[in-house]
């Protein structure tokens, strides 16, 4: 994807796997290494794909324009029909800090407020016939959290207790907001590898670990796409080396499908998705047009 296209998208949206086997050749991992984390005791997650119709609301930003549609297609094949609905509420340029801003602020209205208008309540603008969302998938980041000046994010190292606490508090606040709006389970994954924004972006997972240690029974860890994408950099990225290309989107789709499906994940569905030819630029434009639709 060309840099100029991303520039236009950021300007527009500012408004508002598991296996490297998805390709025959795997790029060597760059020099950066994955930060070590101290695993929190996992809170048991319920079976999500239980045959009952339900909606997943996706909270994220510009790394998540394409892969949610791939997950939707995989879930349709998994169920044999449209039983599970992926409602994509992604807003470009919008890490956690924008979603938890004061409700009177432009940041909130462009992110969380827009999500409520589009997908929640009795007259949602874009939810269609899908049931009300009960599960939130967060593919998120702590960049610019808690303030725009903290460009790289608050967690400078594994020993940065202050930054880790700031990050965990921000994620917790967003999870609580979603809970108050009827979400029963919040599944959180952090940012993909981001060249020039490390080690802070990789260190975001320390904040997620801290949140998990607080043992909220409705908060669960999602897939670790940072480790997946650093191993595929730059081959899984667009020309800007920051956003996922078709290969990167497939990595993320596989990771999230496996996370959602758990033990019921089907390898044949994954293999079909890996082999699929996709136009990620066209899929991104389709999503943006849909969110802008009046």
Structure description:
By secondary structure, the chain is α/β, with parallel strands linked by helices. It has one domain: SGNH hydrolase (Rossmann fold). It has helices spanning 3-13, 67-79, 96-99, 106-110, 112-119, 161-180, 200-213, 225-230, 246-261, 267-275, 280-292, and strands at 54-60, 84-88, 133-139, 185-189, 219-221. The chain has a 5-stranded parallel sheet, sandwiched between helices.
In short:
By secondary structure, the protein is of the alpha/beta class.
Number of E strands:
5
Mean pLDDT: 88
Order of helices and strands: HEHEHHHEHEHEHHHH
Low-confidence stretches: 1-31
Number of domains: 1
Main beta-sheet annotation: 5 strands, parallel
Distance between the termini: 27 Å
Q: Can you say what the CATH homologous superfamily is?
A: SGNH hydrolase
Q: What count of helical segments does DSSP give?
A: 11
Strand order of the largest sheet: 2-1-3-4-5
* Fold-level CATH name: Rossmann fold
């Amino acid at each position: 994807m060309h840099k100029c296209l991303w520039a236009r998208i950021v300007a527009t949206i500012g408004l508002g796997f598991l296996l490297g086997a998805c390709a025959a050749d795997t790029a060597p991992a760059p020099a950066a290494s994955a930060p070590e984390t101290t695993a929190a005791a996992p809170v048991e997650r319920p079976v999500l794909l239980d045959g009952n119709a339900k909606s997943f609301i996706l909270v994220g930003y510009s790394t998540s324009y394409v892969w949610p549609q791939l997950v939707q297609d995989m879930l349709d094949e998994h169920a044999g029909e449209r039983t599970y609905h992926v409602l994509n509420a992604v807003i470009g340029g919008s890490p956690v800090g924008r979603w938890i801003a004061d409700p009177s602020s432009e940041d909130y209205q462009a992110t969380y407020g827009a999500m409520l208008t589009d997908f929640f309540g009795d007259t949602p603008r874009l939810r269609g016939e899908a049931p009300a969302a009960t599960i939130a998938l967060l593919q998120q980041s702590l960049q610019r959290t808690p303030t725009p000046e903290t460009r790289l994010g608050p967690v400078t190292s594994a020993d940065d207790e202050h930054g880790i606490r700031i990050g965990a508090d921000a994620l917790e606040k967003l999870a609580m907001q979603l809970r108050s709006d009827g979400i029963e389970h919040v599944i959180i994954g952090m940012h993909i590898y981001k060249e020039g924004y490390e080690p802070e972006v990789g260190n975001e997972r320390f904040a997620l670990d801290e949140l998990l240690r607080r043992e909220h029974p409705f908060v669960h860890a999602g897939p670790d796409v940072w480790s997946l994408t650093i191993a595929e950099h730059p081959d899984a990225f667009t020309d800007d080396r920051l956003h996922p290309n078709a290969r990167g989107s497939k990595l993320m789709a596989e990771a999230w499908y496996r996370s959602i499906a758990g033990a019921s994940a089907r390898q044949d569905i994954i293999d079909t998705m890996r082999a699929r030819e996709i136009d990620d630029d066209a899929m991104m434009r389709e999503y943006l047009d849909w969110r802008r639709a009046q």
